Amino acid sequence: MVISLAADSAGTVYLGTNDGHLFASEDRGADWDLRGRVGTRTDAVVAQLAAPPMGGRELFAAVWFREAGAGGGVFRSADGGRTWQPSGLEGEAVRALEFAARRANTLVAGTRSGVFRSEDSGRTWERISPAGDPELRNVDSVAMDPANPQIIYAGTYHLPWKTTDGGKSWHSIAVGLIDDSDIMSLRVDAANASRVYLSACSGIYRSDNRGDLWTKLQGIPYSARRTQAIVQDPGHPAALYAATTEGLWITRDTGESWERTTPRDWVVNGVVVLPRKEDSPARVIIGTEAQGVLVSEDAGKTFTPSNRGFDHQIVKQLVADSRDAAHLLLLLEPSGGRLLESRDAGSTWVPLHDSAGARSVVAAWTVDRIDRLYASPWGWMTQLSDGTLWLYSEKSSAWQPWILIEAAGRVTGAIGTRGSRASRRLRVAPGDALAFSANDTFLPESPGIARCNRIGACALLPGMAQTSKVSSIWASLDGQFLLVSTAGKLALSRDGGRSTVWRDLPAGTRDVNGMWRDSSAESVLFLATERGLYYSRDFAQHWMLSQGGLPQGVIEQVLRGRDYFLATLADGGVYASRDGFGNWSRLDEDGERGRVNGLGETRPGQFIIGSASEGVLRWDNTPASASAGHTQGSSLEPDCREPCKKSRRR
User: Fold this and answer.
1) DSSP 43-56
2) Which of 19, 120, 130, 207 lies 20 to 30 angstroms, CA to CA, from 352?
3) Which CATH code, of 1.10.287, 2.40.10, 3.40.50, 1.10.3210, is assigned to 418-503?
């Protein structure tokens, strides 16, 4: 997935991703090299890249963080993207960034709160839009007049604005525009500063009088409703390239006519037009959401993939079948999502049939609505964004809704129908924790915990009736030992939920991301929390923090293998330990670390890992691997062949 593209005056092309990675190509897009990470966070969206017009190795990035309320900032690199430092506007979600054409030190940035300017290469910034203005905020695009940097345009979530005095005063420039919404891109014609282009939800517009009046351009469909960028050909100013959510559109007559030159289903996020060489056509590079980088040698008429050195497969989730460790399910994130299945521990992958089984509910199940994947005792299960649960039928190769009914009366032990209370349908809230034994599913019911079998018959557990605000559930294979975390407390049951013992969570801990009991030592429990990995040797009466190389951060996932524990941090980092109590080793490398969205042990000592930026990886510490030259604690290696191939970068 490519989020942003830019080129410096020397012809080096830069590529930004949605987890802070920065790639570069010094051969006009033929080969790519991972330069580093913009900042330290793995949720940094590199919204825009900007290089000074006068040359040099400086590069600036406009960044916003995906975590709600976390903001973002401007970052600067002095060595072509290898290392980065904050360069102002910390806490601001920066969506747009542009240099003045004739002032190498002047930048303008657009953020959620307004417009800012720096006249010293990002060392200091000043707000040039009114603070707290209800309209001139949520800035999505900026542009400066190439002849007069005092003339600045700002596109907001609701129509465009302009200043002619460097920000002292602003006025709306919306005449001729449909009062629709977001101004996603702005472009001042480099050859004629009176001519300005912008894109909105209703299409692409042109003004020939610096924004005083806009004319909607015909020929580009209204349905191509999000135009991410408008880029001008520097050698042929009448030619412009529009990167849209429905392919790349090109005009060669200043917008009078348009032609789409890529498939409609390509989501194009960025365009770079490199200067011509002698009499050859312009070389056009586009960055897409699912196809990666593509290059055209004929001014955008045809494109070929150019991803050598760049692979940014986004794994939304990976799960392993509890009945067959080599059976894996993978949810990728290109344009809504793709489900892939492997039956050979990740060596090969094939698409999983992804339709609903009943005609009446065909529209209800779609891959883009998947919130969570599960490996249930009966096969693959999905939880959609509305909380509904679906089971995959291998017999019919279709998804079927899993309807949960609480049987009449309360029962103790196996599911039955004793009592006179009427049956009722149970509903799972989006994001609710689920756990599985060999034969049943355990899920929150407000209040309480329900135990459900394959046909959806459920019973509330009498010993868990007081649980609420459940953050995590764990069940032993036989369903007798249960752990439930709820509001700072831990509920333990050794009899399938008939009775419960309550314990305190570690001091200061509210939410638990995962937990389990060690199969080799019944009294040993582990908790993955926002404060680190905790363990107890006495059934949760006392807690200790696992350290010895494992950072004290948000532990998202922990997998107990036969000989190893694997733990992952929310901001990236995969760690391995033989006992889980200490002596952890880092497996991934800092520059390419990514958030992990799935762990599985495909055979003893061999782990499969789904990364939000690195695709599918394998850590192999089996005896056969060691004899082949791999050492204990060796770093992760790619393990995803077509259709999600990966090349190792060093």
Assistant:
1) TEEEEEEE--TT-S
2) 19
3) 2.40.10
